[in-house]
Design a protein that fits this description.
The protein has 13 helices and 12 strands. By secondary structure, it is α+β, with helices and mostly antiparallel strands. The strands form 4 sheets. Strands 1, 2, 5, 6, 7 and 8 form a 6-stranded mixed β-sheet that branches. Strands 3-4 form a two-stranded antiparallel sheet. Strand 5 and strand 6 form a beta hairpin. Helix 6 runs antiparallel to helix 7, helix 6 packs across helix 9 and helix 7 crosses helix 9. It is elongated and about 100 Å long.
Length: 421
């Protein structure tokens, strides 16, 4: 009845294409990854589903092979898989539709008249607390008259901030690496770092930054945070977002623990950067970038390319009043790109916080070590968005089932009764 999938994105993503530029004698025409979508096409040809969904990164819209856009070729091939794969036997043809706009593409349509951007789903516009942009195509089989049933679109929703999603989870302090790790040691390390930063900030030149540092200094004294664990005791009303749809989706009233809410360990130099970055974000409502804003002593990492601008986003705060940036599997390597907005916690996000930004329900338990847990989170399509897509697909499939049953009934009614011998 239906199929869901997507070809590997490495050949289409901007990061992957940037890496390819650095390879000697690289040729997109000879990179088989550009054509792996044909494996999905083969499955559609063989199974002939009533409806299918194909997902990929936004970079697929600008990726080129031989000077020609690969996306328009994919669109054409998806409308007629049999023809695209050189099979002379006629098979199902498809209309390729957007899940959020009226954009569609039929067999034989002019590719120059289609706006590929109409197939982009911006997750933050649909109730997901994360700016995740993906190209998602809905393929619907044409009937004998070349028509498809009307389908719903994913509704637009209010923007959900990072704070909405994770602020009511238990506050945690970071762990310490390469030294004694307990609450007393952590407070001393963090306060020493903050004290040194405060001495370097001129209140006259940067009053907002100085003020936020003072607020953080006072607040740390009144906080008493644990480091978290695989299971953290949960109070009955913990974790509410104030948004009905999200609360219904996330929460499980029978759940007694927060799962996978365990702080990472950070070395002293990174704690200094995290503290500065989160205080800066509170003061200026933006995450600091590069050496021009990470200008206080001890903030520049030991990286030869730091001042070139190539790594200006190496340390990034997830701003509390905006949706998070795209959660990817890179979060498994370090937390530099996913710094918590609360400077008093001075840490990167936990697996559970990242999972909430991805809209995993609170009762979803991630197995394996922390690296594997982050991989599971970062590689997923946000489950709430997937559910909304599934609702559209179910509507199309249900309509087709009703059409089939109606046709079958009409056929049986119109069939003449046999004449008795």
């Amino acid at each position: 009845m239906g199929a869901y999938g997507g070809p590997p994105c490495q050949a289409y993503s901007l990061v992957g294409r940037s890496r390819n530029l650095g390879k000697a004698n690289y040729s997109a025409e000879n990179d088989h990854r550009h054509f792996l979508y044909k494996e999905y096409l083969r499955i559609i040809k063989e199974r002939q589903p009533t409806v299918f969904v194909m997902e990929n990164v936004k970079g697929i819209l600008s990726s080129k092979v031989g000077g020609e856009g690969i996306f328009t070729q994919i669109l054409q091939d998806l409308t007629d898989p049999h023809k695209a794969l050189g099979d002379a036997t006629p098979g199902k043809k498809y209309r390729i539709c957007s899940l959020v706009t009226g954009q569609s593409f039929d067999p034989g349509d002019d590719v120059d008249k289609v706006d590929p951007r109409g197939f982009i789903i911006r997750a933050e516009e649909h109730g997901i607390p994360q700016a995740r942009h993906r190209v998602i195509l809905l393929g619907i089989a044409l009937d004998e008259q070349g028509c498809v049933p009307d389908h719903e679109r994913i509704p637009f929703s209010r923007e959900v901030s990072t704070k909405h999603a994770i602020d009511d989870l238990p506050n945690l302090r970071s762990r310490l690496t390469k030294q004694q790790d307990d609450s007393e040691a952590w407070y001393k390390v963090v306060m020493d770092q903050l004290d040194e930063l405060r001495k370097e900030v001129d209140p006259g030149a940067e009053p907002k930054l100085a003020s936020e540092m003072k607020i953080t200094w006072d607040g740390i004294f009144s906080s008493a945070y644990e480091v978290g664990a695989l299971r953290v005791p949960r109070r009955k009303n913990d974790g509410r977002t104030g948004i009905d749809e999200l609360d219904r989706w996330y929460r499980d009233e029978n759940l007694e623990y927060w799962l996978n809410h365990d702080a990472r360990g950070h070395m002293l130099s990174d704690l200094r950067r995290y503290m500065f970055a989160s205080v800066y974000a509170r003061a200026y409502k933006t995450s600091p970038k590069g050496h021009q804003q990470f200008k206080l002593s001890g903030l520049a990492p030991a990286h030869k390319n730091w001042e070139t601008g190539k790594f200006s986003d190496r340390f990034r705060v997830q701003l509390e009043d905006q949706p998070a940036t795209t959660v990817t599997s890179h979060i498994s390597k370090d937390g530099h790109y996913f710094i918590h907005y609360d400077p008093k916690q001075c840490r990167s996000l936990t697996v559970r916080e990242a999972a909430r930004l991805q809209t995993f329900p609170d009762n979803y338990f991630f197995q394996g070590n922390r690296t594997k847990q982050f991989h599971q989170v970062g590689n997923a399509v946000p489950p709430l968005l997937a559910s909304k897509i599934a609702s559209v697909v179910f509507g199309v499939a249900s309509t087709r089932v009703r059409e089939y049953e109606s046709t079958k009934l009409q056929s049986s009614i119109s069939k003449p009764e046999p004449v008795p011998a």
